[in-house]
Amino acid sequence: MQTSNLNVKSTHIVKWIGKKFTSIPLFVAVPDTGLISLLTAVNIINQSKMPVTSYIESQWLPAVVSIIEGEPLPPVRLYSNDKIAILLSEVPIYAEYWPYFSKLIIDVCNEINPVTVIGATGLPNQKRHSLEKLRLFVSYTDKDFKERYLKDISNFSGLLAGPYAVILRYLMMEDISAILLLVDSFPNYPDPEAAAVVSEVIGRLVGVSYDVSLLLEKAAQIKIMARKLAAETQKVQAELASSTGRPSVGFYV
After folding, report:
1. What are residue 14's DSSP bridge partners?
2. Cα dist. 25→51, 87, 173, 243 in Å?
3. For residue 43, which phi and psi values (nearest 5 degrees)?
4. How crowded is residue 86: how many other Cβ atoms within 10 Å of its Cβ?
């Protein structure tokens, strides 16, 4: 087993309750812009009927528990099958604990030796409600893996902030293969359509065709809501401008 070089104290317990599938991709899903990774993870888990492989317990997790059909489940847990493992957090991780969560990922990697670690997040786009085609980008620590499986996806350039930024930095320090998918998304709403794009890419990586019809159905409803909100906001701003004589500040730019 690889020994971590990072001086971050392990503050978590991993309780394994199922089979450890090894040498498969590990998808890390945490609440972030557009809830892209979370929606993708739930879609894959439900379709594949993936069992829980391990529970995660830590003092840095909030005092909540998920209850599914009467069964209490820790908010952070690992699902696995012979195609992919999914480390899922149903709760946001506070910024001061991102290094601890990153250390958890590294410890899981030491247990299952994944071929790569996958993350996904949204690129907040104020014009998202009017986009017909979403842009998809990738950041990577393993050029060979990117060129082999994701050659058709454009490289991302820009400043990234948030949990995946810290995760990528820690994985880089440990020389662990990682890719991060970035897709246009609503800044303040869940974006199932963006999650459908990510689901299709992950399906291509693991050789499984995941059904995204339910995600697209929800996406259509949210897109209508977002367009209505944009129209209402512009109307209010126009009325404000006419009454004050000042130009309105654009909500969607």
Report:
1. 56
2. 16, 11, 19, 57
3. -60, -45
4. 25
Q: What is the CA radius of gyration of the chain?
A: 20
Question: Phi/psi class of residue 162: alpha, beta or left (left: φ > 0; alpha: ψ in -120 to 50)?
Answer: left
Contact 21, 108 (CB under 8 A): no
Alpha carbon distance 174, 164 (integer Å): 15
Region 45-64: mean pLDDT is 91
Instruction: Give me the helix-helix angle, 213-244 and 192-206, nearest 10°.
Output: 150
Question: Dihedral sign, CA of 110, 204, 75, 161?
Answer: positive
Q: Which domains does the chain have, with CATH numbers?
A: 21-212 (3.40.50.10900)
Q: What is the DSSP string of 72-112?
A: EE-SEEEEE-SS-EEEEESSPPPGGGHHHHHHHHHHHHHHH
The most confident of the ranges 115-119, 158-162, 232-236 is 115-119
Amino acid at 184: D
What is the C-alpha separation between 41 and 195, in angstroms, rounded? Answer: 9
Specify burial of residue 224 (Cβ count, 10 A radius: 0-12, 13-18, 19+): exposed
**What is the residue-averaged pLDDT of the chain?**
85
Question: pTM of the full predicted structure?
Answer: 0.84
Produce one character per residue of 182-193: b if its CB has 16 or more CB atoms within 10 Å, e if not: bbbbbeebbbbb
The owner of tokens 């020994």 is 3
**Assigned token pair, 108:** 């899981």
